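Re-running DEAD-box ATP-dependent RNA helicase CshA to confirm reproducibility after the cluster update. Everything else is unchanged from the original entry.
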Amino acid sequence: MNTKENKSRSNKKRPSKKTQKTPDTEFASLGLNPKVLARLDKLGYKKPSPIQEQFIPIALTGRDVTGQAQTGTGKTAAFGLPILEQMDPRLPGLQAIILTPTRELSEQVSNELERLGPKSLKMAVLVGGRPIRKQIRDLENGAQMVVGTPGRVIDLLFRKDLVLDQVKFVVLDEADRMLDIGFRPDIEKIMKRCPEQRQTLLLSATMSSEVERLAKRYMIDPDRVDLSEKDVANKSIQQFYISVDADRKISLMAKFLLQERPQQVLVFTRTKRGAERLYKTFAKKLKNIAVIHGDLAQPKRDSVIKEFRGGKTRMLIATDVVGRGIDISGISHIINYDVPEFCDDYVHRIGRAGRLSSVGKGQAITFVTREQGSQLTEIEKRINMLLDEYEIKDFQPVRPRPPKNY
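Result of re-run:
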């Protein structure tokens, strides 16, 4: 479906609001109906986050909307609440599809929407690494909302177990990351299977040119909510760098952990091999440590996330692919053991610390070798701020340069 075809889609009008007493919550000013407000009140939702405050009223009108905001700012509720309000709970069959980049994020989004939605809501989570038969049964039993990764969604479409003919709402969550890991062809195939008469919502921490092209192709004159234009990285997180020789990074991390004694720390590496190597080194010395990456079987990944979320694991070593699905409020520190390959990945990584309802102000530390100075500069340009240098007591992470012979 091209842009010209899209322009034939008409925008929906805001649903009429029922006149009855609503709970005393700031969400009441956003146009949500009393039943939704009552559920929010019961769950303890009182004050909408900035992305929720701006995104929800527009989405309730039925218009297409793009939302750019830092990670950990409540984007799931921002797109989920308008969809849940506009869906007809009495209508069988699929009404909404939400695409995310990872299995963990799909399950996290599904859990949140089940909390926010009515008990009668029928949900299906379509991700790889899970028994496909159960997912097919959930679809056959009349799933009204699907959350999944593009790969498994495409698989079920080709099997003809998933039909999108009646879909009214499409969400591209973490759109930048889905494009980063090569899901663009799958996304386009899925979008072309959806009806022209639909509402499309796109959420992203960053709005790259590729994300902009995707929005232009599959959305109709979308309203834009941009909360990241000036401050790309969350300024509530203290951000530092440490200059270090490559062969001293393990010693540096040990010293940092002793000095900071973090409540819960997430360590990022660039590669799966690097994550495993780092895990094996520290597992000999520390308890409550785990590793997660794409080569682990799904049940193992689920177990790792569950124990980290429950606080049983204090240090988790992860690659970027699965790091996107880790949304845990107790993370106090992020360590970029390896400088991220892309500047936007830095934004996503540090967004894991100091999240909504978190323990407080988080810290993010990036290990930088001499050869990576230019990469640090690019990160600082991207986030529009200079990182302070972190000091480690009684340790020299960088060897003094030998004097030149004249």
